[in-house]
Each structure stands twice: as C-alpha cells, then as structure tokens.
Amino acid sequence: MSQQAAALQNYNNELVKCMEDLCSKREELNRQITQEEVEKDRLQHDVRVLTEKLSRVNESLAHRLAARANFDQTIAETQAAYTKILESSHSLLSVLKQETGNLSKATEPRRKDH
After folding, report:
1. Burial letters for 36-67: b for 16+ Cβ neighbours within 10 Å, e otherwise?
2. pTM
C-alpha cells in the first residue's frame, strides 16, 4: 500500500505543480489582457481626439475652399470687366482720333481753286 500512497503522492505533487503552472500562465495572460485593454482605451481616446480634430479641419477647409471660389469668381468678373473697359477705351480712342482728324480738316483754311 505504501507504493500506492507514494504514487498517489507523486500524482498529487504533479497535479499541484500543473495547477500552479496553469495559474501562473493565467496570471500572465491576465496581465497581458490588462495591458492591451489599457492600450485599447488609449487608442480609442486618441481616435476620438483625432476624429474631432479632423472634423474641425474639414469644416475649416470647406470654408476656405468656398472663400477661394468667391475670390476666383470676383477675380474673373473683374478681369472680364477690365477687358471690356480696355476694349471700350480703345474704341473711344479710335473714334476720338477720327473725329480729331475730321475737325482738323474742317478747320483748315480752304484753298481757292484758280
């Protein structure tokens, strides 16, 4: 019977050692889980912060793009108006030169035909 008791004691010792190993591995796994949960929380916070920042940047960008479009439109309209002014000035200058020539001819002394 003492052999059986010794075998039972060995089995018991091995069982206790296996249980201790399992508990140790579980504790290590639990420590890793806790670390990853902390990291997950930190990352989720970072994502929230970055998402809010991205939203603000997108809103600001939309306002700036709209303002730039207004500038582009104003510049295009101003350039078109300026071109019309230049064309009108050119036409006015041509008419004025022609009229000046006509007035000069009208005010020249007439030659007498002999």
Report:
1. eeeeeeeeeeeeeeeeeeeeeeeeeeeeeeee
2. 0.59
